[in-house]
Amino acid sequence: MTDAFPASPPLALVIFDCDGVLIDSEPISLATLTRGLNEIGLAISLDSVRERFAGTSMTSIMERVAREDGVTAPDGFVERVKAETLAAFEAELTAMAGIAEALGLLHLPFCVASSSDPVRLRRSLALTGLLPLFEDHVFSSTQVARGKPFPDLFLFAAERMGAAPERCLVIEDSVPGVQAARAAGMRVVGFTGGGHWGHDRDGRDLLAAGAFSVFSAHAELGRIVAAA
Fold first, then answer.
1. Contacts 24+ apart (CB under 8 A), 74-81
2. CATH number of the domain at 26-92, out of 3.40.50.300, 1.10.150.130, 3.40.50.920, 1.10.150.240?
3. In order along the chain (228 residues), what is the average pLDDT of each group of 10 residues?
4. C-alpha angle with apex 77: 71 to 81, nearest 5 degrees?
5. What does the radius of gyration of the chain's CA atoms come to, in whole angstroms?
6. CATH 3.40.50.720 matches 13-25+94-227
7. What is the pLDDT of residue 215?
8. Which of 85, 143, 199, 211 has the most crowded CB, counting CB atoms within 10 A?
9. pLDDT at residue 128, rounded to an integer
């Protein structure tokens, strides 16, 4: 693990993933998804769901389940899982410790680029008190042709924010997200502070995917940005 980035132009923008980076949502959403997949006949564990699907959109998940597992979701399945996830968020969702304070100390523009659909994304940020910090700088994979691990979403966010890709730093907690950032020509670091990481916070899979470093507490965000 290293904080040393290759020589690059000064940063102009920090792009945050949402689930597992800004909000501690992954334990909730992955558990809901696992239950739903079990109910439609896919025998899969929570750990396997995290490894295979964390950081990807429901559209991509269901395409992979059909292609790789031969299980086709019944009509209304995706909408039901989304509704159950949002209901659980209303009762349980919290922001990541220290993120609001860390955002307040950033001296660069920042935005969100998430695989979540717009309704879930904005509601999640609102529930945790983070939405006012981002204003309208909230971007969803539904706004582009291809979600993560393709670069489309990060490139779209950078364009909307007026920043060149090589001047962007992405904060991600998933392998598809790291791959998407690297494919976009952006610097990327991995965040392992979410509840879904358990005690395994070294982020080896994120480093292997191309993250330049990993960190597990938003108190370190200022140092991470300064090093980029």
1. 74/40, 77/36, 77/40, 80/36, 81/32, 81/33, 81/36
2. 1.10.150.240
3. 64 96 89 94 90 81 93 92 90 94 96 92 94 96 93 98 98 94 97 72 88 95 93
4. 115
5. 17
6. no
7. 95
8. 211
9. 96
30 bridge partner residues: none
Q: Which runs of E-coded beta strand occur in the chain?
A: 13-16, 110-114, 138-140, 168-172, 187-191, 214-215
Calpha distance 68→23 (Å, rounded): 30
- Write down the pLDDT at residue 56: 76
CB atoms under 10 Å from CB of 100, counted, come to 16
Give the Cα separation of 95 and 81 in Å (integer): 21
Per DSSP, which regions of 60-213 are E strands? Answer: 110-114, 138-140, 168-172, 187-191
Residues of the chain with CATH 1.10.150.240: 26-92
Structure tokens belonging to residue 13: 């923008």
- What is the value of pTM for the model shown? 0.82
Question: Could you tell me where in the chain the CATH 3.40.50.1000 domains are found?
Answer: 13-25+94-227
Contacts by 38-41 with C-beta closer than 8 Å and gap 24+? 40/71, 40/73, 40/74, 40/77, 41/71
Confidence (pLDDT) at 201: 62
